[in-house]
């Protein structure tokens, strides 16, 4: 479903991704863990071209791109197939929850507004926000805003959802409600890649855990393998530090 081959990325001469190879199967939930600065967010952003990798190949479904020769149309195809949930929600402040959710379907996908609204309301209900559809982001808690962000991603009907530390901007008491929504989506079989610091969540929800350090994938395996029996010293040290 998604195949990354030899993804390299540097910022101002500093190598942040050092040849990443990663395959994600249809319906798989992959959690990416690793120390701060190891390149997790950059990798996620390179997958849907919010950041353009310096070199490498990205395959998503039947779209195959050599990033050095990526055309505008290929990038649009990848963006159409993927949706991102951001750490800082990135909602439009002057739009209600529902308007935020239907913006992509109506403006980008040219869907009928009435039809998009119907789906948008259903999605907001499915993330527990039936009462808040006409509220503005400033009237919502962080957890509620992030649930709008998740409904907005789902509204695009993507083949994969990329979660970039979706709970790290939240007060601790609001983390649970967002994780519970993500857990529900995972159970529906949608392909997801989640960068997270929530170890117990990763352990419970992911089919596969990928550990990154210094721009490399150091080790990957089932949650049982990575948390129960990590093989690499760097993985062991990381898990020791954070648990
Ligand atoms: P992680 O998500 O693992 O914390 P990031 O991908 O956010 O790591 O960052 C990896 C490194 O790349 C960090 O050193 C960060 O400062 C640097 N970096 C990320 N984005 C940019 C950018 N737009 N410009 C310059 N440096 C960046």
TrEMBL record:
<keyword id="KW-0813">Transport</keyword>
<dbReference type="GO" id="GO:0005886">
    <property type="term" value="C:plasma membrane"/>
</dbReference>
<dbReference type="InterPro" id="IPR050086">
    <property type="entry name" value="MetN_ABC_transporter-like"/>
</dbReference>
<dbReference type="GO" id="GO:0015424">
    <property type="term" value="F:ABC-type amino acid transporter activity"/>
</dbReference>
<keyword id="KW-0067">ATP-binding</keyword>
<dbReference type="GO" id="GO:0005524">
    <property type="term" value="F:ATP binding"/>
</dbReference>
<dbReference type="InterPro" id="IPR027417">
    <property type="entry name" value="P-loop_NTPase"/>
</dbReference>
<protein>
    <submittedName>
        <fullName>L-cystine transport system ATP-binding protein</fullName>
        <ecNumber>3.6.3.-</ecNumber>
    </submittedName>
</protein>
<dbReference type="InterPro" id="IPR017871">
    <property type="entry name" value="ABC_transporter-like_CS"/>
</dbReference>
<dbReference type="InterPro" id="IPR030679">
    <property type="entry name" value="ABC_ATPase_HisP-typ"/>
</dbReference>
<feature type="domain" description="ABC transporter">
    <location>
        <begin position="2"/>
        <end position="239"/>
    </location>
</feature>
<dbReference type="Pfam" id="PF00005">
    <property type="entry name" value="ABC_tran"/>
</dbReference>
<keyword id="KW-0547">Nucleotide-binding</keyword>
<dbReference type="InterPro" id="IPR003439">
    <property type="entry name" value="ABC_transporter-like_ATP-bd"/>
</dbReference>
<keyword id="KW-0378">Hydrolase</keyword>
<dbReference type="InterPro" id="IPR003593">
    <property type="entry name" value="AAA+_ATPase"/>
</dbReference>
<keyword id="KW-1003">Cell membrane</keyword>
<keyword id="KW-0472">Membrane</keyword>
<dbReference type="GO" id="GO:0016887">
    <property type="term" value="F:ATP hydrolysis activity"/>
</dbReference>
């Amino acid at each position: 479903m998604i195949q990354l081959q030899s993804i390299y990325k540097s910022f101002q001469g500093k190598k942040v991704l050092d040849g990443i190879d990663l395959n994600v199967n249809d319906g798989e939930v992959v959690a990416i863990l690793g120390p701060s600065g190891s390149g997790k967010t950059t990798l996620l952003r390179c997958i849907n071209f919010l950041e353009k990798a310096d070199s490498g190949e990205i395959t998503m479904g039947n779209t195959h791109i050599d990033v050095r020769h990526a055309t505008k149309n290929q990038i649009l195809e990848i963006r159409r197939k993927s949706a991102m949930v951001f750490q800082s929600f990135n909602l439009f402040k002057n739009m209600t929850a529902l308007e935020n959710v239907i913006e992509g379907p109506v403006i980008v996908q040219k869907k009928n507004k009435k039809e998009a609204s119907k789906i948008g309301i259903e999605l907001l209900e499915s993330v527990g926000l039936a009462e808040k559809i006409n509220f503005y982001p400033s009237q919502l808690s962080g957890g509620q805003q992030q649930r709008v962000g998740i409904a907005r991603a789902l509204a695009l009907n993507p083949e994969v959802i990329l979660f970039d530390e979706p709970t790290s901007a939240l007060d601790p008491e609001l983390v649970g409600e967002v994780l519970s929504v993500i857990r529900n989506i995972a159970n529906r079989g949608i392909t997801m890649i989640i960068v997270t610091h929530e170890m117990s969540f990763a352990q419970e929800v992911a089919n596969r855990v990928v550990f990154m350090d210094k721009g490399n994938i150091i080790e990957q395996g089932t949650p049982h393998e990575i948390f129960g029996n990590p093989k690499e010293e760097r993985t062991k040290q990381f898990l020791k530090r954070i648990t």
